[in-house]
Amino acid sequence: MAYAIEMLNITKDFPGIRANDNVTLKIKEQTVHALLGENGAGKSTLMSILFGLYQPTSGTIKVRGKEVVISDPNIATELGIGMVHQHFKLIDCFTVTENIILGLEPKKFGMIDIKKAAERVKELSELYGLNVDPYAKIQDISVGMQQRVEILKMLYRNAEILIFDEPTAVLTPQEIHELMNIMRGLIKEGKTILLITHKLKEIKEVADECTVLRKGKYIGTIDVKETDEKQMAEMMVGREVSFAVEKGECHPGKPVLEIKDLTVMNVKKLPAVKNLNLTVRAGEIVGLAGIDGNGQTELVYALTGLAKAHGGTILLKGQDITHMPIKKRLDLGMSHVPEDRHKHGLVLDFALKDNFIIHCYNRPPFSEHGVLKPKAIDEYADKLIEQFDVRSGQGKETITRSMSGGNQQKAIIAREIDRSTDLLVVVQPTRGLDVGAIEYIHTRIVEERDKGKAILLVSFELDEILNLSDRIAVIHDGEITGLVWRKDTDENELGLMMAGSLKKMEAL
Amino acid sequence: MKKHNPLVISLIAVVIGLLFAFGLVAITGRNPFDLLTALVRSMTGFNMQKPDAGINPMFVLNWFKYSVPMILTGLSVAFAYRTGLFNIGGEGQFIVGGTAAAFVALCVDLPPIIHPIACLLAAAAAGAVWGFLPGLLKAYRGINEVVICIMLNYSAMYICNMLTRGLLPIDPNTNARTISIPDSAVLKQVTTATASQFNWGFLAAIVGLVIFWFIIEKTTFGFSLKATGFNKEAARFAGMKVERNIILSMMISGAFCGVAGALLVLGEYKYGRIYTGFDNYGFDGISIALVGAANAVGVFFAGMLFSLLKSASGNLQIFQIPSEIAELVQAIIIYLVAIQYAIILVLDKIDFKGFKKKREPKSIEGGDA
Predict the structure, then answer these.
(1) In terms of CA atoms, which chain A residue is nearest residue B239?
(2) B contacts of A410 (beta carbons < 8 Å)
(3) How far apart are CA A468 and CA A428, in angstroms?
(4) Which residues, given as ranges, of chain A have pLDDT below 70?
(5) Contact B233 A403 (CB under 8 A)
(6) Between 1.10.1130.10, 3.30.70.1560, 2.40.128.110, 3.40.50.300, what CATH number should domain A255-352+402-505 receive?
(7) Which helix (H) or strand (E) holds A81?
(8) Mind listing the domains of chain B with CATH numbers?
(9) Interface pTM, i.e. ipTM
(10) Cys bridge to B145: A151, A344, A454, B138, which one at CB 3.0-4.6 A?
């Protein structure tokens, strides 16, 4: 079979670092080829070279067998290479069609011929089963739909080779499923897909071949059908990875967090959490399973003080914290790894070291009499960076925005765990992270449990809940529909409870 | 992405702005050397075309005199900016500050030295109140501070004029100002050797610079203000009092402008003013904060630069160069700083000579590159 793209012996040096070291990537026509690697393995650099954003230091690129020099993204577009970026580049207040034709507007008497464009968009959308309304405004459509607009943008420009950069990071499970179907459809119609990801499941599901990079180096290309997830993970991280978290028996102690008859309203003033009861004891991990949007966010907001409770009480170590200000709750002994790390977890424009002290900046040793102590702050940052292996360009001085998602999350985990409080509320701790980072974070959470902390884990990923929890509570429509011991349950049972069709209250 | 020091960008903008001015002067058929002469004279008091005349320090002191309120309004805007706010209400805060100072000067009897200090404190408080209003509305009602600030600029002018006319003794000769303030409240000239009105009020600018730097860079208070400015939700999540921080930021910002307004009343006019329009010091503060990259050192130099251009207007006319040239230079500098991304691109181009493509990476994966 002919190759759509061959990137041969590509090396790319940046000042002080070799981002790609003799990497070879060959993509067969009409296949889905996955590019797998941890955060920082050099995937994006390689793609930027293919897309003409960088020039390789050495190596050659062939498109459909012909050697080419891609010095500019426009040349890449001419060669039929299109990229669906992880963060969409769409204008919210424009319609789908307007976004798609941007830069290539069809004209009629000097005016934009929207009708003609919309017809073409519709045609393409039907051909590939994308189901996009050409006249809908971007701000009104779902994230999954927006991604399809990005795909249409490429197809409108006659792209033959589509690069998907971490396409599922922003999607719900259903949308992921749809995307996989769309990819298969594209292949059937003669396109070639390069899928950049670190999610093994997706590779297994949709890809034909997979090239693995590690620390900028080419590790190998494998046939996906003949390789299992474990092998791929090992190639990616360079060591054996355990998907199952090793943990011993749990020894629950006194109740730390007690939620009694809690009711919380959502932003629309409708009850999102209804008379909810839940207890988390010292030394155990309680997993809160449930489909996104069943009241988890509101529950966590009420616990941490970001939203008001409308009824019921919350006790922390026996003290009523239902109406306590955030600061007091934190001081009393609560840590929180928030769901949205960019919105709540970090001040992205601060240096890493400043994010470490965001709770405790006004306390010795970080400040005295209202004056910051830079030396203590620096030492503390160095300590956390070393202990939790937070990697970044300029160490503690790095602007947090420029760090990778995995390392940002590690920074938050480091900060919250190091505060060493009795209760740890962890929400979606590993969203968007690669297996190496997930393994690490899971291990740390279990370690905290073994130190006698009470941990409430909220996650939409059932695997994570099953891996970590000692007890599992299931939330459905704002109510606890199940409370079971981890060892007595399985995925199917939890699934039924998450859907609200089974109630089971055993593990009280 | 390679970090470029924002002050370097400003410096490049300044140089380009000046070069442009020289070009413009040449195109209009005048001698660009005259422009240089005028600028050097405003800066040093030395007239290059009459080297025998010696140095006239009046020009230098006039430059310094203009710089004092400009540095303060620059600090005001920079303070708000660093804490995520845009204070375009400098004019209003400037006017209420000047009026409050006039009230204390005319209605309270205090000994020298203490009297002007009391006036300045009153001005700072008045400016803070004028910053408090938009801060309050922003914090609790989410109303954009820009809109409120602009409206309050006009409110300040008319309310202050009404209060001044109604409550203070008006000078019967002109009917356009109050009587002179008592000598005890006047900020004295630093030196009477020249005619320049440069007065001890400059100490307020120095104190302002130190306070700004100390709060923003050194204190926990500044830390929490900055955190609020960069990411309100994360600050709230960390237990900071976000609403209080927004209000305090606007109040401190307003206080800087209030003091600037008072310095003019106490040191230059020496009477309570009835405002017929804005002095533009508050608006100048926006440019100064922008060019000075919103930090204390930058604001100091940007303030010195813009006041030089202001004080050079007179000298330019002596050399038959339209004083609008000075304003043009200002405008070009502001434009260039505002489109600083263009300068960054050019700098990158120079850095990576030999490469055709200089587009910045979105992020080299992981950022740990």
Answers:
(1) A327
(2) none
(3) 12
(4) 1, 16, 169-170, 172-173, 242-243
(5) no
(6) 3.40.50.300
(7) strand A81-84
(8) 63-305 (1.10.3470)
(9) 0.77
(10) B138
